[in-house]
Amino acid sequence: MTVKVEMGGEVSPKSKKNLEEEEDERGNWGNQCEFFLSCLGFAVGFGNVWRFPYLCYKNGGAVFLIPYIVMLMCAGLPIFFMELALGQYGSLGPNLIFPEIAPFFGGLGWAMVMISALVSIYYNIIMAWAVFYTFASFSSVLPWSHCNNNFNSDGCYTEEAQMVCTNKSMLYFNNMCLRINHFCGIGNYVEFNETHCMDPNNTNIIKPANEMFKRISASEDYFKNRMLEVTDRTWDDMGSMRWELVGCLALSWLIVAACLAKGVKSSGKVVYFTALFPYVVLIILFIRGITLEGAMRGIEFYIMKPDISKLWELEVWSDAATQIFYSLGSSFGGLITLASYNKFKNNCMRDAILIAFANCSTSVFAGFVIFSILGFLATELGVEVGDVVSSGSGLAFIVYPAAVTRMPFPPLWALLFFLMLITLGLDSQFTMVETVVTAILDQWKHLRAHKMKVVFGTCGVLFILGLTMCLQGGILMFELFNGWSAGISVIICAILEIIVISYVYGIDKFIRHITDDMGIYMPRPLKTYWYTTWSVVTPGVLLVILALSMYNISPAAWGDYIYEDHIQILAWFVCISSVAIIPICTCWVVWKGDVKWNNLWKHTENFCPAQERNARGRGSTGGAKADVFRYTHDNEGFVKEPAEIYPTLQEEKPPLYNNGIDIWGYYSNHM
C-alpha cells in the first residue's frame, strides 16, 4: 500500500475563525453602499462647486465638456479604477502595498500618505471658514450685507448705499455721502471737476474720483477684515492668533475624529448623510436659482455660448486634464485605502465607472446652480456676468455671500450653502485622514487595539500643524499649502504608480487578478480599453500634464502679493517633501540589503489576497496551520469514500513525520 500526501489550501474552522477575527480587527465596510458613497464623497469636493463652473465659462462654455470627457476617459477613469482594483486585491494601505509590488518603489505609498496629510491640514481650514460663516448666518441681518459694522474698512461699500449718494450727486466713502471737494480732500487732492480730483502740488496729476481710494465690497470686507483680519499682513508680520478661527478649526477636527473613531465602521454610516446632503442642497438651490431674475443670463454665459475655437488652445486641454485628475482624487492614497476595506469579490470596475461619471455630472450640475445665482447678482448690480465671476475661495466666501443678501430670507440660503460646503469637505477629509490612520495601523498592527486613540492623536497633530493658518496672516500659509502641497507631486506619484503596475509588475498579471481572482467580468472591449490606457494612453497624458504644469508654474503668491524669496524656498520644500520619500525609501532598502538587487523589481509573495497572506503568516509564526493533509490510496479496499481531511494544528499536537507522512494522524485514524 502506498499513501500519497497532497497539500491543500483549505483551513480548519478554528483557522477560519482566526482569519475572520483579523479582518474584523482591521475593519470592513458594513455594506457595498457605504464604500460607494465614501468614494463618491471623496471625489465630489469643493472643486466641483467653485472651480469647474469657472473653468467651463473661461474655456468656451459647453465646448469645454469635450476635452473634459476626453481627459476623463484617457486619464481620470483608468487610474481611478486601477487604484480601486489594487486596494481591493491586496487589502492593504498604500504604504504597505507598494513595497510588496516592487520593493524598489516602496516609498511611493508613503509619498501618497504624506500628500494626504499635507492636504488635510489646509483642507480643514476651509471647513473652519465654513463653520465660521455658518454661525454668522444665524442672524436676522447678515453681517456681510452692509458696512455699518465696527470692523468695516473706510473703503467698504454696497451698491445700494453708493446709489443713494449718486442720486444726490455726491460720492460714497466710509459710510457717508460726501461732496466732491470733501471727497478729494481726504486724499490731499483738490476738486478738479464733478468727477475728478487733482494733485495741488502737480496739476498734471488728475485722477477719476472713483479711483482715489481702494474700494472693497461688504462681503469681501467681511472675509478679509472680520474673519481673517488679514489687512496689511505679510510674512514678516503674521499678526496674532484668531481665536475664533482656532475654535472653528478645533470643532472641525473634533467632528472628523468622532466620525472616524471606529474607522470605516463609523465613517461608513456617516456618509449616508454627508455624501447625499450636498445633492439635496444643490437641487434646492437650483430650483431657487432658476426662479431669480437674470438667472438665464448666467446660465447662458456659463454653457450656452460655445466657442469652438477654444478647442485649438493648449491651455483648455491642460485645464481639463488637471481638473479631472484632481477632482477624482487619484494618487492621494485615498482610493487604495477605501478599496482595501472592500470584500474581495466586489465589482469595483462597475463602481469606478459609476463614480467617475457621477462626479463629472455633479460638476456640470453645480455650474448651473452657481451661474444662475451669478446671473441674478449681475442683474441686481447692473453689470455683466463676467464682472462678478470668480473661482476658488473668492466664489464661496465673497461672491456667493453677496448674492444671498439680495434674496428673500438671506440667512436661510446662506445657512444651506455653508452647511453644504461643510458636508462636501467632510467626505474628502474623512478619506484623507483615514489614509493616514490606516497607514499607521497597517504599519504597526499592535496599535489596532487602540484605534480610537490613534485617530484622535492623528487629528490632534494635524490640528496643531494647521494653527499657523489661524493667524491674522494665516491665509498666506494657507495659499502656500493650497498651491504647493498637492500639485506637481501628485502627478509624479501617478506616473510612477501606473509605470509600476503596468511595466514593473505586469499589466497582464494585474488584469488576471481582476478577472480571474476577483471574478470581475470584463467584456473584451473594456479589457482592450483598460489595457490600452494603462499601457500607453494614461502614462502619456500624465507626462504631458506634468510638462505643462512645470512650464506654467508661477511663484507662490496670494493675489498680487508675491511671496519673498525665502518663502519660495519653503513652497518648494512643501512640494518635494512628499515625493522625496520615494528615493529615501529606495536607498534605505538597498542599504539594508534584505532584498537582493534582482528582486528589488519583483513582487513579493505577500502581494496576494489578504486571506492567503494571513494564512501563510500564521504558518510561519507558529500559529495554527492553514494547510491540511489530504490522503489518497491505491488500495481500493482501504479507501473510505469520500476521502477524509485531517487538519493539523501545531499548537494542539506536534506531528511526527516520516517521509512526508503524518504518522500520528495516519495510524490514529486507520488502525
TrEMBL record:
A single MF term (Gene Ontology): metal ion binding
Biological process, per Gene Ontology: amino acid transport; sodium ion transmembrane transport
Record-linked PANTHER family: BLOATED TUBULES, ISOFORM B-RELATED (PTHR11616:SF240), SODIUM/CHLORIDE DEPENDENT TRANSPORTER (PTHR11616)
Taxonomic lineage from the root: Eukaryota, Metazoa, Ecdysozoa, Arthropoda, Crustacea
Subcellular location: Membrane
This protein's name: Transporter
Region ranges (Disordered): 1-23
Sequence intervals crossing the membrane: 62-81, 101-119, 126-144, 243-261, 270-290, 324-341, 353-378, 412-433, 454-478, 484-507, 528-549, 569-591
Membrane topology: Multi-pass membrane protein
The species this protein was found in: Meganyctiphanes norvegica (Northern krill)
A cellular-component GO term for this protein: plasma membrane
Disulfide bridge partners, by residue number: 147-156
Amino-acid positions noted as binding Na(+) 2 in the UniProt annotation, renumbered to this chain: 44
The organism's place on the tree of life at top rank: Eukaryota
UniProt similarity note: Belongs to the sodium:neurotransmitter symporter (SNF) (TC 2.A.22) family.
